[in-house]
Amino acid sequence: MPDLGQLEEDIVTANRILADHNVVDSFGHVAVRHPDNPARFLMSRARAPACIELDDIMEFTLDGKVVGREPGKPYSERFIHGAIFEARPEILAVVHNHSPNVVPFSVVKTQCFCAIMHMAAPIGRDVPNWDIRDKFGDATNLLVTNMDMARDLAKSLGSRTVALMRGHGCVVVGRSLREVVFTSIYTEINAQMLGKALALGEVTYLSDGEIAANTKGRAGFTLERGWENWCRSVGRPYHPRAMDTGPGFSRTDN
């Protein structure tokens, strides 16, 4: 994991990239586990992702309490990130968004939201659809504003990569900031494509074997290729990381 200063810069970049890809708009947020203290996480103050700057980054305990400087109001749904970090020690980054092509799948519960393209393979075939109404009634505004709600969402997510949130959006998790941004972008793209495919006829989803092979093969080379391109698109500096390749690359690759 990068050092704290570089990670904070990357949080700014991640927010700009996700905004540029219409994954977040004026709302939505990104959090990263603290590189030196796994019981804390970093995210911006409550601000539109495309506007976030380095001075907006704040530090939190896993139960959502602010640690240190407070440049502004924190996101009311910061508990989502804390509860997932609490439940999933291997997870280092979380995105919560209202991705516009994903939301329709959250309100049609009979329709599978599954991966149909190889770039979206980590979505899988078993995406849960968490409904805040099931446990917390029909008088909420659908926002996850405390740890009880957040822990219930984290329980629904389980060991998966993505969970839908009925009438709200989704959460996406990753083992790095680059990975969670990559998966968030391709979750939105998969939703666009799936909606079009369903209008055409019967859909062929990725198989469990195809999902496993594509997910296992995703490594630094793939993530860096996307990250560099997206940094250029939003005018942010690109700082290269490991360019390792995962198993399953074509036989012409070294």
Indicate the topology.
Layout: H1 4-20, E1 29-33, E2 40-44, E3 57-61, E4 66-67, H2 78-87, E5 93-97, H3 103-106, E6 129-130, H4 132-136, H5 147-157, E7 162-165, E8 169-174, H6 177-200, H7 208-217, H8 220-233
Parallel strand pairs: 6-7
Antiparallel strand pairs: 1-2, 1-5, 2-3, 3-4, 5-8, 7-8
Q: What attributes characterize this protein structure?
A:
alpha+beta, 13% strand, eight-stranded mixed beta sheet, L-fuculose-1-phosphate Aldolase, 254 residues
- Given this structure, which CATH class is correct? Alpha Beta
The CATH homologous superfamily is termed Class II aldolase/adducin N-terminal domain
Order of helices and strands: HEEEEHEHEHHEEHHH
Helix content percent band:
25-40%
- Structural class, please? alpha+beta
What shape does the CA trace take? globular
Question: Count of DSSP helices?
Answer: 8
Counted beta strands: 8
What is the residue-mean pLDDT, rounded to a whole number? 95
Q: Residue ranges: pLDDT <50 for 5 or more in a row?
A: none
* Proportion of beta-strand residues: 5-15%
**Rg of Cα set:** 18 Å
Distance N to C terminus: 26 Å
- Please, how many domains? 1
CATH architecture: 3-Layer(aba) Sandwich
Main sheet record: 8 strands, mixed
CATH topology: L-fuculose-1-phosphate Aldolase
Order of strands in the sheet with most strands: 4-3-2-1-5-8-7-6
